[in-house]
Amino acid sequence: MRSISATMFVTLDGVVQGFGRPDEDTRGGFAHGGWGAAYNDEVLAAEMGKGMAQSGAMLFGRRTWQDFITVWSSATDGNPFTAHMNAARKYVVSASLDSAGAWENSVLLRSTGDVAALEGDLSIIGSAALVRSLHAAGLLDHYTLVIHPLTLGGGTRLFDDPAPRTEFELTGSVTTPKGVIVAHYTRVSPGAR
Questions:
Q1: Stated pTM of the model
Q2: Do the beta carbons of residue 184 and residue 142 sit within 8 Å?
Q3: 187 within some domain
Q4: What are the pLDDT digits (tens) for 101-154?
Q5: From CA 1, how far away is CA 126, in angstroms rounded?
Q6: In 95-135, at which residue ranges do the beta strands (DSSP E only) sit?
Q7: How many Å apart are CA 139 and CA 145, to the nearest integer?
């Protein structure tokens, strides 16, 4: 049985672009990159660590996979996230990549249909376009929304276009000292309510 979980760092106005670094994603002239850094604290780190401690493979869209290679693949900082990222099986979904050999333990998939054929637990961090595609295909089972208390007024949003109606149940939440809400949702099976 397959289960797909997506962790998305999001602002109050739904922006998911450029969370980590100023140069992370400047498409469309986005000038607010690195907006999440001011909200890091021990509670948020511990909550994200829980997700990393779970077994299963990782799933990426092409852009996020290529960005993560630059950050994680050659890091030697002793960070437990680094060891996890490099050791995990990584699936990258792309119609344009020639190979996934640039990062150890990576496997190239061509479509959401290829994702549907996978088994086991899969987790996504970021990769908004892939998340939207998987959501539209009914393949996303869990969301962890890391909601930051700010608005940016522009940038790529989690759902720029209407998403198909899908119901989720809140299964847990944590609020950090800096006002970030980490909300865990699980998809409700049709007819379950």
A1: 0.91
A2: yes
A3: no
A4: 999 999 999 999 999 999 999 999 889 999 999 999 999 999 999 999 999 999
A5: 23
A6: 106-109, 120-125
A7: 17
- Kindly give, in sequence order, each residue whose CB lies less than 8 Å from that of residue 93, ignoring residues fewer than 6 positions away: 59, 60, 61, 62, 109, 110, 111, 112, 114, 115, 130
In a domain, 52, yes or no: yes
Contact 93, 114 (CB under 8 A): yes
Find the CATH number of the domain harbouring 83. 3.40.430.10
> How far apart are the C-alpha atoms of 110 and 76, rounded to whole Å?
31
Residues 79/45, Cβ–Cβ less than 8 Å: no
Count up the domains in the chain and report the number: 1
**3-state class of 47 per DSSP?**
helix
pLDDT tens by residue, 48-97: 888 776 778 999 999 999 988 887 777 777 666 777 788 889 999 999 99
Q: How far is 124 from 8, CA to CA, in rounded Å?
A: 8
